[in-house]
């Protein structure tokens, strides 16, 4: 699982305006990138529970991580003036948008649960199948200031699989489409899914955000066919994650298209075709 997780390039809290760019790339705005690099750097920690004998399914872990990011972004402790996490979240969003995924089991997981944060569960376990994913998200911390119980968690060595191919996504709900031409570890993919969810959240107006939140942030993470991916990227109307390239993949690689129904252009085809 990739410890560096992922870093989003050009994104700031000001990008919540309606005309904000929907593609974020660290290479296309040298002035803003310099300012962001000069700012104190923070990271959003996520910890996935992976018990040795009963790991969760990969897709469930990705979806749970994405939802965890959304829950934290919308939590009053992060959004309310003077909220317990508001300053840390603001500082994180004013610098590079880093997310790091680590794994824990047993006593490690119990210690992680003792730190301030939010734990989310994934899809209900099916008889004979893997357990529901569990992901805990924590308020941002300085890049070099991790809490001891999180800093010592492993960041590599275990990946996740799906026991069966995921079903077709419900296109009435948001879908985070992963680039089919890029291979990522589970941890890296979890971070990228979190980036995609965050971009979708920033693009939505207040009414659409309220609807999504009240429904519990339903979403799917899927890998489309190469043809569908090309159409999604070419569409130009949906948020696209371009990774900064610190780990696993080349800088500027498009990793996720955030396909939220409220962000789709009128008349755009919603067919899944080989997804």
What does this entry look like structurally?
The protein has 275 residues and is an alpha/beta fold. The protein has a single domain (40-157, 170-263), classed as Bit1. It contains 9 helices and 11 strands. Strands 1, 3, 4, 5, 6 and 7 form a 6-stranded mixed β-sheet that branches. A 5-stranded mixed β-sheet has the order 2-10-11-8-9, sandwiched between helices.
Quick rundown:
The chain is α/β, with parallel strands linked by helices and 275 residues long. Helices cover 32% and strands 17% of the residues.
What is the topological layout?
Blueprint: E1 6-8, E2 23-24, H1 30-38, E3 42-49, H2 58-74, H3 76-79, H4 86-94, E4 97-104, H5 106-113, E5 118-121, E6 134-137, E7 141-142, H6 148-151, E8 175-178, H7 186-203, H8 206-214, E9 220-222, H9 226-235, E10 240-242, E11 254-259
Parallel strand pairs: 2-10, 3-4, 8-9
Antiparallel strand pairs: 1-4, 3-6, 3-7, 5-6, 8-11, 10-11
**Overall strand count:** 11
Structural class: alpha/beta
The helix tally amounts to: 9
Q: What Rg, in angstroms, do the CA atoms define?
A: 17 Å
- CATH superfamily heading: Bit1
Total of domains: 1
């Amino acid at each position: 699982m990739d410890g560096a997780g992922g870093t989003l390039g050009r994104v700031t809290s000001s990008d919540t305006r309606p005309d904000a760019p929907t593609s974020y790339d660290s290479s296309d705005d040298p002035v803003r990138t310099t300012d962001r690099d000069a700012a104190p750097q923070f990271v959003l920690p996520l910890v996935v529970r992976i018990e040795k004998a009963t790991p969760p399914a990969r897709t469930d872990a990705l979806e749970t991580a994405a939802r965890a990011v959304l829950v934290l972004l919308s939590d009053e402790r992060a959004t309310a003036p003077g909220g317990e996490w508001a300053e840390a979240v603001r500082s994180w969003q004013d610098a590079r948008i880093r997310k790091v995924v680590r794994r824990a089991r047993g006593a490690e997981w119990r210690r992680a649960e003792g730190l301030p944060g939010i734990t989310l569960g994934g899809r209900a376990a099916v008889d004979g199948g893997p357990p529901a994913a569990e992901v805990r998200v924590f308020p941002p911390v300085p890049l070099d200031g991790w809490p001891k119980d999180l800093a010592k968690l492993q960041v590599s060595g275990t990946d996740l699989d799906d026991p069966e191919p995921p079903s077709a996504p419900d296109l009435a709900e948001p879908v985070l489409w992963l680039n089919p031409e890029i291979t990522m570890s589970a941890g890296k993919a979890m971070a990228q899914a979190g980036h995609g969810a965050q971009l979708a959240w920033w693009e939505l107006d207040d009414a659409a955000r309220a609807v999504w939140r009240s429904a519990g942030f339903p979403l799917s993470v899927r890998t489309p066919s190469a043809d569908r991916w090309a159409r999604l990227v070419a569409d130009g109307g949906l948020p696209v994650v371009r990774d900064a390239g610190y780990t696993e993949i080349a800088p500027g690689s498009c990793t996720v298209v955030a396909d939220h129904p409220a962000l789709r252009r009128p008349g755009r085809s919603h067919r899944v075709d080989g997804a």
